[in-house]
Amino acid sequence: MMATPLLLSIAVYLLALGSAALLLKIPAIADNLGQLEGRATTIDGLRGYLALGVFIHHAAIAWHFHQSGQIGMPPERLFAQIGQVGVALFFMITGFLFWDRLIKQKRQHDWGVFAISRIFRLYPLYLPLLAALLATVFYLSDWNLRESPAQLLKHVSLWLIFDRPDLNLVQGTGNLISNVTWTLSYEVYFYLALPLLGMVFLYRGSLLKTVACLVGLYLLAQVVGWEHSLKKKYLLSFAGGIAAAYWVRSPALMAWGRSRLAAIIAVLLLIVVLTLLRKTFAVFPLLLLSVVFFVVVSGNDLFGALRLPSARWLGEVSYSTYLLHGFLLWWLAYHYYPQMGFAMDQPLPFIALIALCTPLLVVVSSATFLLFEKPGIAKGKALAARLRRKREALQANPVEKA
């Protein structure tokens, strides 16, 4: 199938953008774009392309699984890199957004509100997915309980902190969602490490406090990655986002980043990483991707690609796309496709399946965003506002606090 990975990837992007454009003709969906004013448009647009890149990566893995019976990195360089580049740039976005906020707020940063916002960002969609995953596990188990209730409860609890043990003795349970939750462990580590990083690099405490924070960062990595140790090569991606938070504070760099020349360089560097390099998570490719990211955070829309309303909508639903695409692929490409009677070495039926899966993924992601993500975010904001009001009331009435 994969003799023309570039053309196939472009086809997926066009199908997804077209599907999003059609959805935006629905007023209830289009109104959501109007609520994004004040946000970094180019970053929103970038998110959509990144999530689709991970989907393309896993679709290629599914194809090769049918040829070899093994799940592994696709041999085609573009298909191998497009997913890894997506994850690296997602980590950079996280690093940029929260380090930028920490630079602005410094010691006034409200960590309670921050914790609430992250919980209500990650879990409102993750919990329904986990429920659907558990139902699928029992479907594969013929609705029989194959491990003790205590063991099942333990394993489900580990899934709640984004580990992926097998559930109910179904081997390779994580493959049902393409194991995408591994990245959430790195996101959570960054969230938890942020106050320690702030104390080291922004608050500038004593040498003893700095050493204590560095030890704390190490121990925190061991706790978060207790089952599968966190790897430095992935954590390095966040550094590109942190560097971007300083880039945007230079008017000269920002002006260059918005130029046509910067857009050309960014596109060329992206092509180099996607097609010529064999690794993404290494110092040199991450440096190249950091330059790409600097250009994007400068407000450069890369010849309009990041400013398309359809791209921005795909960015808005990118968490749903990222979290759900593996589950959708499992049902369609791993479970049902072999039952359809096609020869497993014939590429056209599989390409047709992915062509069907792409708009379906956009529709499902849009629906889950509106049903789960958006209400969850709103609930988190309301809870954070209540926490602020309570804290302000206590500060205004210290006698009541006592």
Could you please describe the fold and organization of this structure?
- The chain contains 16 helices and no strands.
- It has helices at residues 5-23, 27-34, 41-68, 77-105, 111-140, 149-160, 182-201, 207-224, 232-247, 251-257, 260-275, 283-297, 309-316, 318-336, 347-396, 398-401.
- The protein starts with a helix and ends with a helix.
- The chain is mainly alpha-helical and 402 residues long.
- The model has no long low-confidence stretch (mean pLDDT 93).
- The chain has one domain (5-401).
- State the secondary-structure class: mainly alpha
Distance between the termini: 70 Å
Largest β-sheet summary: none
User: Shape from CA axes?
Assistant: globular
Return the string of H and E elements.
HHHHHHHHHHHHHHHH
Number of strands: 0
Helix content bin: over 70%
Radius of gyration: 22 Å
Count of alpha/pi helices = 16
Number of domains: 1
Strand content: under 5%
Mean pLDDT: 93
**Could you name the ranges where pLDDT drops below 50 across 5 or more consecutive residues?**
none
InterPro entries: Acyl_transf_3_dom, Acyltransferase_3
GO molecular function: acyltransferase activity, transferring groups other than amino-acyl groups
GO biological process, one term: polysaccharide biosynthetic process
Keywords: Acyltransferase, Transferase
